[in-house]
Each structure stands twice: as C-alpha cells, then as structure tokens.
Amino acid sequence: MQITIRGHHLTITPAIEENIRIKFAEMTKHLDQVNSMQVKLSKDHQIDKRSKKGSDNHIAEAIIRLPGTEFFAQACADDMYTSIKKLSEKLKKQLDKHRKMQLIYVPLTA
Which of 25, 43, 48, 84 has a C-alpha 20 to 30 A away from that of 76? Predict the structure, then answer.
C-alpha cells in the first residue's frame, strides 16, 4: 500500500509520519485491496478572538482508495496528534462498515 503524506503550512516531522503509518497500517491490515492512501495535514493560522489562541486549527484529511470505492474523512483538533487519532477513528468506522457490507453481499456459488 502506498501512503502519500503532504503538509500545508506545516512541516511533516518524522514522528508525525511514523504516527500516521502505524495508525493506518493497523487499520488496513485486514484489507488487502487498498490501492492508495493520501493524507493531507494542514494548520489554519486563524486566532480565536476570545481565547487568543487557535482552536481546532490542526486539520487532518485522508482519502483511501479501494477498487471501485473511495473513502474520505476529515478531523480537526487543537494539536496534530489528536486530529490524526480522530481521523483514523472515522476511517476505521467507514472501513468496518464496508467490510461488513462485503460479508453480507458475498455471492454464493453452488
């Protein structure tokens, strides 16, 4: 599986890259047909006027491509590791639902 990680207004550190690879490897270990995965990490530099700090300004987005299907999720949090965790949880739910639907609609051969 090919994982592409991009940063927008953010430098991708080796620790962030390793965190992404570990989380998504665990999530897709039971899916052999994953073609590719794209992860985009960005930081919004907008500041909240009341608290004088950015709130939910670390954004993580991902696209997972399977044959005939594409999954997308986005998550925001105060720090990048939390947004990556939320993103992986959202995608895991989508992939679990997809896997269950495949088990239900498996054609029976005589």
Answer: 25
Longest dimension (CA), the chain: 67
Burial code (b: 16+ CB inside 10 Å, e: under 16) for 18-38 equals ebbeebbeebbeeeeebeebe
CA neighbor of 88 nearest in space, from 74, 70, 102: 74
The tokens for 65 are 């491509």
Q: What is the DSSP letter of 106?
A: P
Q: State residue 20 phi and psi, 5-degree precision.
A: -65, -45
Q: Where are the domains of the chain?
A: 2-104
How many other β-carbons are positioned within 10 Å of the β-carbon of residue 75?
Answer: 20
Q: Which CATH entry fits the domain spanning 2-104: 3.40.50.170, 3.40.50.720, 3.20.20.140, 3.30.160.100? A: 3.30.160.100
How far apart CA 104 and CA 106 sit, in angstroms, is 6
Single pTM value for the model: 0.81
